Amino acid sequence: MSVILRVHDLSVAYGHIEAVKGINFHLNSGEITALVGANGAGKSTTLLAVSGLLKPARGKIEFEGEDISHLSPHQIVQRGVVQVAEGRAILTTLTVAENLQLGAYTRQDKTGIASSLEEVYHLFPRLKDRAEQFAGNLSGGEQQMLAIGRALMAKPKLLLLDEPSMGLAPLMVQEIFRTVVEINRAGLSILLVEQNVRQALKIARHGYVIETGKVVLTDSGENLLANPQVEAAYLGG
Ligand SMILES: Nc1ncnc2c1ncn2[C@@H]1O[C@H](COP(=O)(O)OP(=O)(O)O)[C@@H](O)[C@H]1O
Ligand SMILES: [Mg+2]
Question: Where are the alpha helices (DSSP H) in 30-106?
C-alpha cells in the first residue's frame, strides 16, 4: 500500500489565530480517507493548505513523496491534486460545458480533454442533458455534480472534496456519495471532508476526527462508525 499524501505536523494560522494545530494524517493510494468533525474544526483550512491556497505556518505536505507545501496552487493542480471547493464555486453565467472546459485549464492534450469530458458526461448524464444551459440554472445537487465534474476535467490523481453533501436534499446526498464511490472505484484517491460524519465514514477506508485544529481520533471508517465516542459526539448516539 503506497502513501499518496502525507501531512506532517501541519499548522495553519489566520493572522494570530491558529486554526490547524500540528495535525498528522496520510492517505493511501486508491483509497477514500475522510476528515470529519464539527463546523469550525479546521477541516477546510487543512484542505486549503493541501491545495496551496493557504501557506502552512509549520509542517510538511508530501504528495507522491514530494514536499508540495512551497508550491503555488497552479503547480499543485499540475501535480494532480485538485480541490472541489466548498460551496461549489461554479461560474453561474457560463454554461455547463464552459464550466467543464475551464476545469481542463492546465492541460494541452485536446484528445485527452475530449475523453475526460465524455467520462464526466457518462458519470453525470444530467450534465450532458444540460450542457448548453447556464450553470446558474442548475439545482444545488446538479451544481455539486458540475463542481466535481470540473475538478475531474483536470485529470486529478487526488481529489479533495470539501463538504460535497452540504445543503443538499437527502436523496441528492445519497447520489453524490454514490458518485464519489464510483469515482474512487475508477482508481482516484479521495480526501473527503465532511460534517456528515455517518455518510463519510460509511464510504471511507480510513477516517480522522478533527476537533479544534487537532486530530483526536483515527481508525478505519468502519471502526469509527462503531466507536461509542464518535457515536455520542457525531452520530446523535
Ligand atoms: N478566513 C478566515 N479568517 C479567520 N478565521 C478563519 C477564516 N476561515 C476560517 N477561520 C477560522 O478557522 C477555524 C477553522 O475553520 P475551518 O477550517 O473553516 O473549519 P471547518 O471547515 O472544519 O468548518 C474556525 O475557528 C474559523 O472560524
Ligand atoms: Mg469547512
Answer: 43-50, 73-79, 96-103
